[in-house]
Design a protein that fits this description.
Strand order of the largest sheet: 3-2-1-4-5-6-10
CATH topology of one domain: Rossmann fold
Shape: globular
Order of helices and strands: EHEHEEHEHEEHEEHEEHHHHH
Helix content: 25-40%
Strand content: 15-25%
Distance between the termini: 41 Å
Largest sheet: 7 strands, parallel
CATH superfamily of one domain: NAD(P)-binding Rossmann-like Domain
Radius of gyration: 19 Å
Number of strands: 11
CATH class of one domain: Alpha Beta
Length: 299
Amino acid sequence: MKILITGGTGFIGQALVPLLCTEHKVTVLTRNLNNAKAKLGDIPRFILNLDQFKNLDNFDVVINLAGEPIADKPWTREQKAKLCHSRWDVTARLVDLFQNSENPPHCLISASAVGYYGRQKVTPIDEDSAPHNEFTHHLCQEWERLALLAQTELTRVCTMRIGVVLDSSGGALQRMLTPFKLGLGGKIASGQQGMSWIHRRDVIRVIQYLMNTPSCQGVYNTTSPNPVSNKLFSKTLAKSLHRPALFPLPRFVAEKMFGEMSDILTEGQYVVPQRLLDEGFKFSYPTIDSAMTQIFPKQ
């Protein structure tokens, strides 16, 4: 198949693109050609913008992963706008190209996030659960709305509400490692807030499943079937590193350090991938223990 990928140099894309290149012809949208080649090699075809296309008739699948990292910078007004438009603008442009196509790709897989649900309490939530109206919900709701505009009888759209992606080579886990390796890690705030996580390898498998299963369309929670509390996650990470987890981060300190962005750390959700489970999808790493064992093999 011929596949167009946006956001291919991100944490998920860096694992996805090389794998797809073994079987498919892959085109990656990038703003920095040298950086993209350094991360992905020379096999994919690279394009610097979508303006060179009038339509998407030459592609079978589009995978839309583009977006400014959500937790890299404080959420100033300017940063919030950047977070939104880095997702919305690319998605809207892709939809325009879908709508200009006589023979459009048969599938659009577009990223979203569990932030769609906003802050929730401890009750497990699935794809039909009501969201809490806050910034992350607004961001994801519009992101998904735009993607669904590409859906026709010729094109099915799948939106992935992705949780915290775990692997050893980057992402959220890499940012957590230093304090935990120093024995300075611990729970955040009460530690009872839900952490909806997923191993990066399972994210890739979900994308392949959605791409190759013609009956799939609509929203899919892309998380492990076993979300955990922040307290349990912290204990498991510390144990995997053979360190204690004795230094909690109080809520007021997190709020002082990160401002509104601290909501990502102090609030949470226990998201369940109910649609994937109902369809019989099998996770390679369904529990936090199995994921940590793979990421930090015993020496």
